[in-house]
Amino acid sequence: AQVARIGELLKARGETVAVAESSTGGLVSASLLSVAGASAFFLGSSVVYTLTSRLELLRIRAADVEVLKPLSEPMVQRFAQRAREQLGATWGIAELGAAGPSGARYGHPAGTCVLAVDGPVTLTTTVQTGNSDREANMWAFTAAAMALLEQALI
Q1: Following CA atoms 98, 38, 41, 27 in sequence, which dihedral angle do they give, to the nearest 10 degrees?
Q2: pLDDT confidence bin for 70, thresholds 50/70/90
Q3: What's the CA gap between 88 and 73, in Å, rounded?
Q4: Which of 34, 8, 27 is nearest to 97 (CA)?
Q5: Band of residue 67 on the pLDDT scale cut at 50, 70, 90
Q6: Would you say the C-alpha torsion 104, 84, 44, 6 has a positive or negative sign?
Q7: Average pLDDT over residues 26-32
Q8: Which residue, 113, 109, 115, is CA-closest to 132?
Q9: How far apart are CA 101 and CA 81, in angstroms?
């Protein structure tokens, strides 16, 4: 129901979205694409799980993020901005996280996720599930991404 509301809001406004996601592995995009008529608002996405994919798909270079802490709200906001700019979307949404079962190499525990929406409104949030279950975290991060996007739209 939430993703349907998001789709309806985007369609009614003639707004578009681009996605860059990491630890959710495409679930954010799949959620948005589950809405009938998604082609009216969904411009595209990338799963930027590796440094190579971040460079090639988002054109994120070391200089673009060198002053930003890894797995931080400022970093994920940069990714959302870049996703939006790359596809000329109204909104960019990005997710970076440590789904589990182990934590991130930067010291963040499993179940840590940062999310950003960039567009007419910019919002960021950090999710801590306290859980090391990889699949459960992927779904929890996706739900949090949908909630953040809906919050930006209303």
Answers
A1: 0
A2: confident
A3: 22
A4: 27
A5: confident
A6: positive
A7: 98
A8: 109
A9: 29
Q: Bin 36: left if φ > 0, else alpha if -120 < ψ < 50, else beta.
A: beta
Residue 3 CB neighbour total at 10 angstroms:
20
DSSP letter string over 97-144?
Answer: EE-SSS--TTSPPTTEEEEEEESSS-EEEEEE-----HHHHHHHHHHH
Residue where the block lists tokens 């009216």: 40
pLDDT at 39: 97
Using CA atoms, how far apart are residues 54 and 61, in angstroms rounded to an integer? Answer: 8
Tens digit of each residue's pLDDT (9 = 90 or more) over 86-119: 999 999 999 999 999 988 778 888 999 999 999 9
- How is the chain split among helix, strand and coil, in percent rounded to 5? 45, 20, 35
Residue linked to tokens 């959710």: 24
